[in-house]
Design goal:
The structure holds 2 protein chains of 2 kinds.
Chain A lengths: L1 E6 L24 H5 L15 E7 L5 E6 L9 E5 L22 E2 L5 E7 L2 H10 L1 E6 L24 H7 L2 E9 L11 E7 L2 E6 L4 H12 L6 E4 L15 H13 L3 E4 L2 H7 L6 E9 L5 E12 L13 H4 L4 E10 L13 H19 L3 H7 L11 E2 L4 H12 L11 E2 L2 E13 L5 E7 L5 E4 L9 H13 L6 E4 L16 H24 L7 E3 L2 E4 L2 E4 H4 L4 E9 L2 H4 E2 L1 E13 L5 E11 L6 H21 L29 E6 L23 H13 L10 H4 L5
Parallel strand pairs in A: 1-25, 2-12, 10-11, 14-15, 16-26, 20-21, 28-29
Antiparallel strand pairs in A: 2-6, 3-5, 3-7, 4-6, 8-13, 9-10, 9-12, 13-14, 17-18, 18-27, 19-20, 19-25, 22-23, 23-24, 27-28
Chain B lengths: L4 E4 L3 H4 L5 E3 L5 H6 L7 E4 L8 E3 L3 E5 L4 H6 L1 H6 L1 H8 L4 H6 L2 H5 L6 H4 L41 H7 L3 E6 L3 E6 H4 L18 E8 L5 E7 L10 E10 L2 E10 L9 H7 L6 H12 L11 H17 L4
Parallel strand pairs in B: 1-3, 2-3
Antiparallel strand pairs in B: 4-5, 5-8, 6-7, 6-8, 9-10, 10-11
Helix pairs in contact in B: 5-9, 11-12, 12-13
The chains are: A alpha+beta, B alpha+beta.
Organism (chain B): Palleronia salina
Keywords (chain B): FAD, Flavoprotein
GO molecular function, one term (chain B): oxidoreductase activity
Chain lengths: 725, 323
Amino acid sequence: MTEHLKMDQVQPHLLDETGQGVLSVPMPRPEGPLKVTGRAPYAAEYKAEGMATGVMVRAAITKGTYAVDTASVEDMPGYLGVFTDKMVRNAAQGTMGTNPAQMGDKILYLGQPIAVVVAETFEQARDIAAVLKVDYTEDDDAVCDFDGVSDWPDSDKPDQGDLDQAMSDATFTVDSMYTTKPHNSAAMEPHAALAEWDGDKLTLHGSLQMLGYNRDEVADSLGIDAKNVRLLAPYVGGGFGSKLGMSPDCVGAAVAAKALGRPVRVVLSRNNVFEMIVLRTATRQRLRLAADKDGKLLGLGQENWQSNLPDEPMAEPVDLATHFLYGGENRRYGQHVAILNRPASGSVRAPGEAVGMLALENAMDELAEKSGIDPIELRLRNIPEKHPETGVQYSARSLAEALTEGAKAFGWDKRQKAGTRREGEWYIGMGVASAARTNILMESRANVTLNPDGTALVQTDMTDIGTGTYAILGQIAAEMLGLDPQKVTVELGDTDLPKSSGSGGSWGAASAGSSVFLGAKAIRRKLAERLGCEVEALRLQDGVATGGNNRRPLAELMDAPITEEGHIEPGQTDEDYHQAGYGAHFAEVAVNAVTGEVRVRRMLAAMAAGRILNRQTATSQVWGGQIWGIGTALTEAIEHDPRTGHVVNNDLAEYHVPVNLDVGDLEVMFIEERDDASSPIQAKGIGELGLSGAGAAVTNAIYNACGVRVYDYPATPDRIFPHLP
Amino acid sequence: MKSFEYVRASGIADAQDTAGRIIAGGTNLIDLMKHQIETPPRLVDVTRLDMTEIEQSAHSLRIGALVTNSDLAAHDTVRRDYPVLSRALLAGASGQLRNKATTGGNLLQRTRCPYFYDTTQPCNKRVPGSGCPAKEGINRILAVLGTSPHCIATHPSDMAVAMRALDARVEIESPNRGTEMLTLDEMYVLPGDDPSKETVLEAGDLITAVHLPQPPKGKQTYRKVRDRSSYAFALVSVAGIVDVEDGKITEAALAFGGLAPRPWRDGTVEDVLVGEAPSDALFDKAADVLLQDAQGFGENDFKIPLARRTLKAVLAELTGVTQ
């Protein structure tokens, strides 16, 4: 049976009434020991009988056409074939469910996958790929330089009110340009696929975040029925958006395996990941704020410029949080997307907020400085009662609590005037920024099985990309069924299991979690019937059911396993309420007075994301956000050669994610909250919330430390020291 | 990866293999081979040779070529008498790499210019005569001193910068020339017309040790400016050894990383300092001399003022002058 809920109205807090007490508390991830001992296999670690190995060939020109000369390599040791059929240009965008662009013989960026070379061994395939003769015909009209774009397309975003008028009426204004460089997701595990055919049926081990969509993308790319595709991704070594959509290795492996009649494995090199998988676009952003004498916003504007390849249905939603975070009647947005011959732009860690909140929250800091109002007080004064553009009411919104309680815990009252605190060669400063991330509930299904011996099984095609899915789904089932979480087995990452929301957009925990909740709820109803009590009176704890005047061990109520499917769908609460997670980030930094090097001493995040399902994995998620915040603020930048679009720093030695030493003390606190509109488990997304605004807290702290305002990210030493005395 | 032969040298004569490429820690060479930037037909593994000792004599410290960067940095004598070297080593790479990387291999690591690493791109160092896209491209981390029209790559080592300041000499066993002792300036060649040639070493030459002279007088430090706190190459680094007596600088040795195709030392900078009373104005004069021929290529222009600031801070620290 299926327990179905369309989220049309707020739901009771059942999880506050169950008594097992295993939810919300810290619990280590159950698969942790498998991962740290190398027993949790990732896609590239599977082997199949008779498996051959493929290596992707990358385009060596920026724009034009190509033909491979297979005769040039046919005699090489281990050669099995070179395949160009159905090659996709780049990874699919998230939730597309259709094939990414398939270019035939056309090349639109340097590094585009143009063929897969297959040999008996990886080393042989790599050697063949290196010497394969490719005949190129180069076009001379490639456009690669973001800074050189002059004819930007117009924006069609409508204005609200009159921002120009508000700017001239205002007592205090900010009008600043910010730039951010492109980013890479930098997941530890590179994308990989092992494809095996059995007649018309394809089984593919992949490194993917959203198997339901990915199955459709693989099928569409290959021109086959999705029913004939089974995807497996039980363990995924980080995604951060880069695995939302099917990656080119999947198609390369499947095409080659079909042609050769044997399994083929394709693992992307780190360099490939920097080119064939979507990157976050560079952005240029103009931020305007108009405020009255009390710092109250009369208007705000956020216009952005970015780039992509042609026919990519995704633009960085730079202003996503700006629409609803602060008030102000007059509002203007703009989005201009240039077409450039560089790798495709797509989702990378908190698309939108990761860069949009840098500019917005830096501008708020500028406004605080100009108006002489404390940055926290300024933000508090601009929290609107309802959505400033749609007029829709907010669901749970603990922004004020996050700012004030976070400030207290951080010691914000010790913050001094900009440029006045110095320790030896170091300027010291503190910064704050708000955090906001739209909450999304997605359709999701899961099977929950309760066995008479007091064990349970959760099954869904949901993925765990390092986020803690195994832990929280087990905890939800255990809490609902009155079991020790160790007695619950969670099976994930297989499209033969019920279709889930997938991991992305921070919606996985609440969506997949709600499906498990509903499946378990249906089991509770059955148990109540068997016990002879109202389900409201049922209490399940430690394998014993209590209700009415009865108390029975589960085994006495069951002679066979009970399996129920839970099925959640978004509904009317999505229209009736504007839902988002909120928070506040605080940072204390030291800026070297000689070199401009920045060291983050400590950060604190106060996060409000509804019910926290597992304090340990949620904290870990927020740490990740804080660290990416340090990366976006200080170190991360993809450099494209302006002449060729070539990703120059295409590895993790030269693309600088923060190292341990870059990360000071990280503190995370949660604001106690239930979001009734979000889902029947009252939880909201947490992962991307941890990043939203985090980098701005760091750069605002840089300003407070040394008086240098960062407009061009990242704030490497060369962007700081020239402005120091 | 091209197929290659692997042989393990059991004596120095085995290692002097003109057709082979010597491998020790492999922290750079293996990357280069994976990318097919280098495709040696034969690897000669020298790690079983007896070159792992640090030997102290009255006049010098002899560091075996196979001493790892971690062991060298932690060595008591090095920490006490040559702290500039210990600091430079610990500022380099990451803990894991330092555990593998050797003294000899560190000296011979190759540039991190990104165009050198991508075989779809031209590079005069990798493919002589193909051109240098870095000069007008992404060159933020590249050189401002000692460049040529054909190459603006930097030498990536931190260790070698400290050794240059310490007047280290490299002991080389050459099948043709016998035992040689070269200073780093004698060993490294500037790019000139052929950036593919980085040292005077010839096929079959083996670095067996590095000799440090008696500990210098005065204070020592190594300061590295970089984009992140660890596992990042120097934007600018300064190895400084300065002695002050009776209010005057009596000895000075300064070497620079991140600025040039080899660890950079310019005696005229030291000449400005020696015999003078330390002062902010004097340090500026030294920086003027160091940077008078410096040439930026756009993105790396900042290195010139950054080198000035860093040099001045190092001199202030070593002489006790407050800036």
